[in-house]
Automatic annotation (TrEMBL):
The gene is LOC114442886. It comes from Parambassis ranga (Indian glassy fish). InterPro entries: H-rev107_PLA/AT (IPR051496), LRAT_dom (IPR007053). GO terms for biological process: N-acylphosphatidylethanolamine metabolic process. PANTHER family: HRAS-LIKE SUPPRESSOR - RELATED, PHOSPHOLIPASE A AND ACYLTRANSFERASE 3. Keywords: Hydrolase, Lipid metabolism, Membrane, Transferase, Transmembrane, Transmembrane helix. The lineage of its organism: Eukaryota, Metazoa, Chordata, Craniata, Vertebrata. The chain crosses the membrane at residues 125-145. One of its GO terms (cellular component) is cytoplasm. This is Retinoic acid receptor responder protein 3-like.
Length: 151
């Protein structure tokens, strides 16, 4: 099994968070025997992705990963058997892909909880709003200072 950042060995139905970069992570659902099912974008521009079933080590490569059933405190998860069954039944399907509302995290959360939710998108939107208002504030402050200097 590929080494994890944490010490927790995944169980069927667990969600696997794979650290791609500082901003976004890739997500998969563990189906057993060191295998995961995940949504892989074929063409992000065209919004197409495919559901694939692959060995965990092949998916994570040399990246860090953890078992992260982060929404268990918010939602009741579905039975592991149902999660695995539904995930495996979707393998090979082409699906719509959109970073904001139909990404790999939405996919796995829908399988585990029946809720299509992405915390990383929510965090990104909040960060974007804060950055936007920060820029607006900086511009307004700059205009105010400029007016005072030239009065």
């Amino acid at each position: 099994m590929a080494s994890s950042k944490g010490n927790k060995k995944p169980k069927p139905g667990d969600l696997i968070e794979i650290y791609d970069n500082q901003l976004f992570q890739h997500w998969a659902v563990y189906v057993g025997d060191d295998v995961v099912v995940h949504l892989v974008p074929n063409n992000v521009v065209e919004g197409v992705a495919e559901v694939k079933k692959e060995e965990l080590g092949k998916v994570v490569k040399n990246r860090k990963w953890i078992v992260n059933n982060k929404l268990d405190s918010k939602y009741q998860h579905r039975p592991a058997r149902a999660i695995v069954r539904d995930a495996c039944a979707m393998v090979g399907q082409k699906m719509r892909y959109c970073l904001l509302n139909s990404n790999c995290e939405h996919f796995v959360n829908n399988l585990r909880y029946g809720k299509s939710e992405s915390r990383q998108v929510q965090k990104g939107v909040i960060a974007g709003v804060i950055a936007f208002f920060g820029i607006v504030f900086a511009v307004a402050l700059g205009v105010s200072i400029k007016k005072k200097l030239y009065q």
